[in-house]
Specification:
alpha/beta, UDP-N-acetylmuramoyl-L-alanine:D-glutamate ligase, six-stranded parallel β-sheet, four-stranded mixed β-sheet, binds adenosine-5'-diphosphate, binds magnesium ion, 2-dehydro-3-deoxygluconokinase, kinase, nucleotide-binding, 2-dehydro-3-deoxygluconokinase activity
Amino acid sequence: MRATFDIVALGEAMVEFNHAGPRGSRTYLQGFGGDTSNAVIAAARQGARCAYVTRLGDDEFGRMCRCLLRREHVDTSGVVLDASAPTGLYFVHHGPDGHVFTYRRSGSAASRMQPGDLPVALLERATWLHVSGISQAISTSATRTVREAIRIARQAGTRVSYDPNLRLTLWPLERAREVIVATLPLCDLFLPSLDDVRQLAGIDHPTGIVDWCHQMGAPHVVLKLGSQGCLVSDGEELTAVAPFRVDAVDATGAGDCFDGTYLARLVAGDDPVSAARWAAVAAALATTGHGAVAPLPGVQAVWNALKAQS
Ligand SMILES: Nc1ncnc2c1ncn2[C@@H]1O[C@H](COP(=O)(O)OP(=O)(O)O)[C@@H](O)[C@H]1O
Ligand SMILES: [Mg+2]
């Protein structure tokens, strides 16, 4: 029987205030961002049937964020508006050394997620569950909620996709390593970026990192290498996928775009290497604009980019 959803993602979406104009300007562009919500929107723009599971504040921003998800054709039946906690938010400032992120997310509605609140039927009716290290790191109840979501998914035959997205401002390295390493054998697909695993494994070389991921129990690994493209490995064959050349202006969210697009292409029937080639183009295009959501490309934009290059 065909699943109701191709991808159900679980995590935190936040309000984004992106500083605009010259230094000292008091103008901010308001949007929304969050690793798993970016990924699920990227997947929906690629034609996948998606749902998002989170808690947002029952405030203007929470309702606007839910509207955004709906506009992007992401099912929000698993989005709870919480009257007792705010929607998390972050600021992006652009300095001489790149972007500086300032988060105001502690005590956010999403950080209050509980295993008992999970929409079980949604998780059971999906082909993929997508979660991240950020989904786990935002609170101890979120760590338990992700663990329970994975348990429900595995029991129902829903495959599990996992991006460690290591953020040491959210949890200390020792704790992050403990939780992430324990999650590796539970996922079907592991989507780290080079910097994530460098810190977790203490290994620098990309192929050594892929081996480490397999040794820790991940059956299928895509190691994202920023402007260098990615490596795809099923444990037997390792394939390097070249980057798609672009003039990048903002690489934030490239990895999230890659994750969502890769899953959407797998669901559409691509083999892993073809899916990675397509996702590398989408993720490269996502670096050509500012903000978390606006530059996420649809199918046509990826086709156009491929056509323009050939
Ligand atoms: N400057 C870039 N040029 C082309 N492709 C890029 C660039 N930066 C990122 N990408 C693509 O996006 C993917 C994810 O980016 P990466 O920076 O590795 O992840 P994350 O955003 O999680 O740190 C890469 O594997 C690559 O395919
Ligand atoms: Mg990342």
